[in-house]
From TrEMBL:
Species annotation: Trapa natans (Water chestnut)
Keywords for this protein: ATP-binding, Coiled coil, Microtubule, Motor protein, Nucleotide-binding
Protein name as annotated: Kinesin-like protein
GO MF annotations, alphabetized: ATP binding; microtubule binding; microtubule motor activity
Pfam name, any one: Kinesin
Amino acid sequence: MVGTATLRRLSQQGLLVANGGQDLCPDTSNAGSECGGIEFSREDVETLLGEKIKAKNKFNYKERCENMLEYIKRLRLCLRWFQEVESSYMNENERLTISLEMAEGRLAEIEFSSRNKEEELSSIVAELRENLSSVQEKLTKEEEDKKAAIDSLVKEREGRLSSEKSQASLSEELSKAQLELSSTYERISSINDMYKRLQEYNSSLQQYNCKLQSDLNTTSESLQSLEKEKATLVEKFSHLRGQHSSLQEQFSTIKASHEDASKQKELLANEVQCLRGDLQQVREERDKNREQVEALTTEVAKFKEYTGRSIAELDNLTLKSKDLEARCLNQCEQVRTLQDKLTIAETRVEEYSTSSVETQALCEEQRKLITDLQARLTVAESKVMEGEKLRKKLHNTILELKGNIRVFCRVRPLLPGENSSEEKSISYPTAMEFLGRGLELVQNGQKHSFTFDKVFMPEASQDDVFVEISQLVQSALDGYKVCVFAYGQTGSGKTYTMMGKPGIPEEKGLIPRCLEQIFQTKQSHQSQGWKYEMQVSMLEIYNEMIRDLLPSNRPNGAENGSAAKQYVIKHDPNGNTHVSDLTMVDVCSKREVSYLLKHASHSRSVGKTQMNEESSRSHFVFTMRISGVSESTGQQIHGVLNLIDLAGSERLSKSGSTGDRLKETQSINKSLSSLCDVIFALAKKEEYVPYRNSKLTYLLQPCLGGDSKTMMFVNISPDSSSSGESLCSLRFAARVNACEIGVPRRNMSTRSFESRLSYG
Ligand SMILES: Nc1ncnc2c1ncn2[C@@H]1O[C@H](COP(=O)(O)OP(=O)(O)OP(=O)(O)O)[C@@H](O)[C@H]1O
């Protein structure tokens, strides 16, 4: 078959001519054979001829045949040309074969190089693919970013629209605000004036404050010197007292011996008197007897003269006279012995009277010494009293200036069974400014530092702890409301701190020690003319219910009548708290209060938890109301001492509580968290303080936010397994330390103190 491209080339060379301007007409004489390399099938020629015959009917046949011949001629020429071309093709073919072989060699080379190139290309392609995938990733990311950007753009647009709206409203407001601004500028200028004046006032206040501070410093110095003076005076005083008592002892022995001597003298004088009487009697008798003897002798002589009497009568008379003589002799003897006794007695009386004169002189001397000592003693006592007054005043001023709840932290020692080999979680900084006040706790590898008014290490004794609060107890006697409470995790030592270990005097807690101090001071103040009356109440808050822990004297006893009792807490305008139906017992000795405390601690709700064998399950509130009157000045004071052992804070999971214990624990935690809320509100100086959220906070309202002197113990366990709880307690205590309460007020009213059921 001839390709259309070849036919076109032939026609271009003029070997094919157009038939009538329409067809190409080759020579068909050799139809069905090869014509110069061009194959024509018979069907082609016949179709061609058929076409020509058909065309004969329309055109001139002769002309057509001539054309046909011409056409055949041309085809033959074509054929020849084809043959020539074929031979040239053959040559060309050989040449091409050679060049093909060369080309094949070249191709192999090219193939080799192309394979190399292919490999290179495939690596490049792989690289490119990687690049492509990263680019695609970037692209997808960018697309996502783009989407997000579009979203934000949409939002921004929305925002812009809304801001445009708000801008419109704002511009309105702006115009209003500009008006306001101008008025505010005016106000600002007036405020600035006021500010300047306030600054001046502030600077004057600061100066005044500086002056006060310097006054305070000088007062503290003078307090210290007074304290020293007082100590020396007290020493002198005690020395004088010792001298006085020894002199009085001497005086009393001398007096006794003097009295003995005068008694003996009197006895002897009486005896002498009796003896003198006896002697007189004997002398009279002797004189009588002598007279009788003389009469008898004269009679005997007369008788002898006249011998008118019988011999018997004579004998009788002789016997009588002998008897009288014997009696006379006897009486003479008696008189002699009596005279001896009299002289002895008289010498003794003389001795006694000289010694009594001496004793009287000595007595006089000692009396003078005693009056001198007593005068010095009264001077010293008045000095001590003045010093004491000044000390109290300064002490209270210092506490008042502090104006916040003071917080002491106490870390108990490790108990048997607790892991002492573990790394210690609590340490105490030794830097001067934190010494005795700082504590560091490590929890989960993180160190937390705290500072309080005082930190008691595990070695601190009950006495060491009491020394720090004894001044507060003194304040209660001076007419202040005082509140000390212990807070901490269960088993951290709250009850130990407040009550101590029963039966071991060195380990008695703050409550018994406070009572001792109060009754001792009461005794010592009695000599200064003060008389005190004390009332005690004890209650516990268990499951948000108040329970009276003292036996009631009323007909329906505490146990029987407790169901009917209300125990409603009320605060009066003077800051006193009243708990209705609560038993108040008058007490006048430590023994009485100790008995009541024992009774109360037996009635208190305790239970065993995983954390403590004897865990207090309630908040224990001990209240002592002190009213004192000075007989000399008529001054009256009314103080209150509240000592509170709170129930332990604990995590439900750690305490292992179930059933009733679980209910107790939940109630304890609720009231303690109410306490936290109150403290936080006070620390933030919020207007509303939620005192009423629990009975505990409502009861303690005057102590937490009122005008009392309040102190908190935060008890800590050193066991590292408790460090989480310890951290919570310490954080709470730090907040409490920052709380400012009202300035403590001394209750010194002169009216009658009618509040038997008052709590604090
Ligand atoms: N400073 C201390 N020295 C010696 N032992 C202590 C000290 N503090 C506490 N303990 C002992 O630790 C144990 C637990 O103390 P305590 O009962 O006082 O804890 P608590 O805080 O009152 O517990 P709860 O809240 O459960 O009543 C007791 O056996 C107590 O004797």
